[in-house]
Design a protein that fits this description.
By secondary structure, the chain is α/β, with parallel strands linked by helices. The chain has 2 domains: 13-194 and 355-365, 3-Layer(aba) Sandwich (Rossmann fold); 203-343, Glycogen Phosphorylase B (Rossmann fold, 3-Layer(aba) Sandwich). It is built from 14 helices and 13 strands. The protein has helices spanning 24-39, 84-96, 98-111, 125-131, 144-148, 156-167, 203-209, 228-237, 268-274, 284-293, 308-315, 326-331, 335-343, 355-365; strands spanning 13-18, 44-49, 62-66, 116-120, 136-140, 171-174, 188-191, 217-221, 242-245, 257-259, 277-280, 296-299, 321-323. The strands form 2 sheets. A 7-stranded parallel sheet has the order 3-2-1-4-5-6-7, with helices on both faces. Strands 10-9-8-11-12-13 form a 6-stranded parallel sheet, sandwiched between helices. Strand 4 (116-120), helix 4 (125-131) and strand 5 form a beta-alpha-beta unit. Helix 1 packs across helix 14 (355-365), helix 7 (203-209) crosses helix 9 and helix 9 (268-274) crosses helix 10. The longest helix has 16 residues, at 24-39.
Length: 367
Amino acid sequence: MLGLPCYPDRLPVIAYYVSGHGYGHAIRSNEVARHLLRLLPDATILFRGGAPAWLFPPHPRIHVSTAQLDCGVAESPDALRIDAAATVAALRQFLTARRQIIREEAAFLQSQKANIVVADIPYLAGPAAHAAGLSSIGISNFTWNWIIEPFAESEPELTTRIRDGYSRMETLLRLPFFHHEGMEMFPEILDMPLLAGQPSRSRESVRHEFHAHGRPLVWIALRGNINAAAVQRAASSCPDTLFLTTDSSLDGLAGNLRLFRIADNLTVSDVVAACDAVVGKLGYSLVSECVAAKTRLVMIPRTGFREDPITETEASRFTVLEPMPYEDYLTGRWRSYLDAALSRPVPHASAPLGGASACARFIASRL
C-alpha cells in the first residue's frame, strides 16, 4: 500500500480512482480535489490509479498510490493512433483478473476507512466500492465501453463487463462534450459545467516570466515521442514566435524554444491562459483549458479516437480549432497553421464554467 496511513473515522476519507490513460484524467481530478479540500479542509483524498504520481500536487491531505481498475486503449508511440488489436487483447487479459482486483480494492477501501469512492472513470471502482459497502460517483464525458465498442464488436462480452462495472456507481457527473450513447447503465446522471482549471496567476506575469515581450507564445502540449526534428524545423521557421515545452529531450533545439516545468507556482491553466496558441491533440482536458481561456488550439488529428469529432464540433463553438495534417506536423511545416489560427477571431460564446466546484459540492453532499 506504499505506506498509506489509516485515518480516524471522524475525518472524511475520499478514495479517488483515476484512469492512467493520458494525463487529462489526473489533471482535472486535481481541480476537483482542490475544491474538495476547500469545502472539507480535514478530509483526506486517496488518489489511486495508473497516472504518474508527479501529476498530483504535493499536499498533506493528498496521498497517491498505484492500482489498475480499468484498461484504456493501446496507442502508437506518438499517442496519435489507436492499436485496435492490442487494445482488445489487453482488455481481455485485464478482465480475467477483475474479481481479484475487486476483492483487493474492497480490502484497501476498508483498511483506509474510506467514506466514499469517486472515479474518473475506472469501471471497476464501482464494484470495489459496492463490495466495501460504499457509495461511488463517476466523473467523465465518456465511458470506456463506448470508446472500446468499435474495436470489440466480435467480443461484446468485454464491453458488457465494463458496463456492469459502471452500473454499480450510483451517479455519473457528466461533463460537457459527451456522446449520449453508452451511459444509460448509470442509475443517475447529472450534467456538470465544463471542468477546467482557474489560472492562479495573471497572463502578464506568466508571459513576463517567459520573456515573451510581445512575441506570440505557443505551448507544444504533446506527450509521447515528440518528433524532435519537426519541432526544430517549426521553431526555426517561426523565429518571432516563442515556443514552450515540458519535454526535456527538446531542450536546446532552438533559441526560441523554452523548457519549463508544471509546478505549484505555474499550473497548466496558467500556461494555457498566457499563450496565444497551443499545439496539441484533442485531449479533453487540454481542449477544456483552451475553451476556458479562449486560447487557440492548433490540433494534430488522431486516428481511432471515437470522441474526437464530438469534441471538435462542441469546442469549436467557444474557441479556435485549427487542424494541422499529420504529414505537416511530422515535417515541421507548422507556420501556416499557426498563422491561420492566430488570425482567426475567437468566438464570442463562452462555455459554462465551474465544473470542478460543482463536482466537489456534489461529492461533499454525499458524504
